[in-house]
Queue: 4 jobs
Job 1
Amino acid sequence: MTKSRTTFKDIKNALKWMGAILSVMLFYGFSMALYGHTLVEWWEPLGIALTAVLVIWFLLRGFWGKVWRGVNPYVALLGHMVVMTGVVLFLILGLNFWFADDTTLHTEEVTVEERLQEKHYHTQRVGRNRYRRGNPYYKYILRVRFDNGRLKEIEVPLKRYNRTRTGGKMTLDLETGLWGYPVITTWF
């Protein structure tokens, strides 16, 4: 029997794939954070992103063929969809947020429809490759209704959550984003 040796090329490929996976996770995470500050239904940017991703697939088929060399074409398409949807969502929501028009800044008074607490648990490591559910922590969410009837859930710190009552009013600063989606600029 011969021993297989790990080469520099194997390590380099592994690091490249780990970096790509981490990047995709960051794109999705930042997209979720930006969605929390954007007044848009979830399916609008997702629909635009999926359409753009399919167009990009047809334009970059040769490139993805090299990246996914020797892989089933359907798996390559799925990989492209997962990676590029995160990137395009980040671009749509990020450009809308960062290039919001400052001249459209206005305040809106919203009504607090509901106060929510979501209970989550930390993960606790108890041994090598062994984890268990750790201590609980809470996320505090206010479901607010705008004058046009739109509902939005906003995550707030505990201090703001305790000061707010159901049926009460609160003011939010809004700007119009690059793509026309309103952006909440109030930071709690």
Job 2
Amino acid sequence: MDFIAVVWSDKTTPDRADRARKAWALYQSENGVEAENRIEDLISDLLHLAEVDEHPGGAEGVAARASRNYEAETGTWPEGWAEAEPTGRFVAQMRQAGGVWSTVGDGDDRRTVAGFLWKAMQIAGFRFSELAAHSEDLMQGRVLTSNDGFEFRVIPRDEL
């Protein structure tokens, strides 16, 4: 799964951390640099902001997408990811042109499972404004292909 980070970005983990460093410094200066002021407090406050500002999926949706983005951006999947057998009824998968299908997520709700592919689809060139319509296509069993050949699908687990 390393191709996700390698093909789609040349940023390293320190590069990505530096993008957030200013926000972290501002948060600390506004809220005091004390033992209780931890980075998880900033993350928690950002999740509250997602709820208040009505970001898609609210705090739970933002946290799930952020976790998937982080995993994709690290260049490797967490230990045991490849061996983990999907347990949900539906599976979200992607592959490079001519490659092997890789499972990105699974669950019992087709719409939620299709949402697991949104970030990768955006990176592959799909427009954010069209992702909801593309999710409908995925839920109907269509395979979507980006201009550079990446393919995305949602299938029943028993078709693996």
Job 3
Amino acid sequence: MKLRAELTVLPPREQARRLAPIAASLVAQIERTEPHAPEAEAASAAIRNWGDGGRLTGRDFTDLVYSDDERGTLRRLSEVVGKPSEDGWNALTTATMYVAWLVYQETGEPMPSDVNEVGEDSLDLLDEQLAKLG
């Protein structure tokens, strides 16, 4: 499946709706080896919520990736390098950052530089990450 071709023709919230089941499957994959993964669950829930019309900000999403208290998907990814859940955390972080990019575009909030670097090519990366997971 080519996510970029499938998703970029859709409105932003519909893109998030289509990414929600992918995020949920990544959470399930992560939780096979890490039963307690609240950061993964929160990221997946936020993607689903925003896709369904929820009022979340870009900052809400970036906090899910790297928060001030250093808990987020990126921190968890750094903790699991070389472990079975690494690929799941990596893909979930990519999906969350992509949706953050969509949210910032919709809300017009000032976009942090790391989110500004995200774009539709992130969907190609996510495709590669998902293929690696099988």
Job 4
Amino acid sequence: MNVEIFKELYESFGVWAPVIIVSITLIRILLNPQKLREFMDTFSYARRRNIRDKEKSLESPYLDSLTRKSIQKQISEDYFYQSTGMRLDFYLRHAMLQLYEYSKGSITLPNFKRARIHLSYEDKRLKVSINKFEKLFGMFSGIFFLVLSAMAIFLALYLINFLFITDSTNILTKEVIGSAIVIVVYILVILWGSLLFLNIFSEIKNAEKIENFLHENPEFNDEYLMKEPVFDIAVNNIQAIEDQD
């Protein structure tokens, strides 16, 4: 295989795949900026420092009870995020943990993490919101994942054959190296796209799993979750002491 065949193979795929992948990535960031915030938190120690600052601020005697409770809720949210990777408000977190306990392992925390953008807590009920377009897009995402994964594997095998088998005598030529760099970047974009579509497909499937469980167990929302959750750090501390004893 020569460089011209290599170029023709790359050009045959066109630019549609990178354009679609980048566009969908930007749309998902705009529609759900929390994902970007969580991604940035993963590579930053600012969150831990922020928790320490909040904990230190609680020592001030000038805080009123409402401000103190608000800070305590924020700290609770931060610690929950560090433990599970999910940034949730108190009420949705309460509903998720209640369902996790109620399902006895049928619904796991990873299920919640993948489906969380479709979950909400309204009117003392845990709700799953998936419209028909999202379900259809989720199905096509699974197909796109398979297609892009196959493309990435095919291009990677071709690159290996091109560089190390067929044209090993020309591997140091500028033309070959330049073409190889272009196709490597293209493979990385395709791999990113396959992971992106896999993530979308996984979100929909896990949300549907939770939705089906709630439909099959209506007593969870009707009876088990009807009691209004109360955030009381004093009660939590007493319970923690009792557990230690």
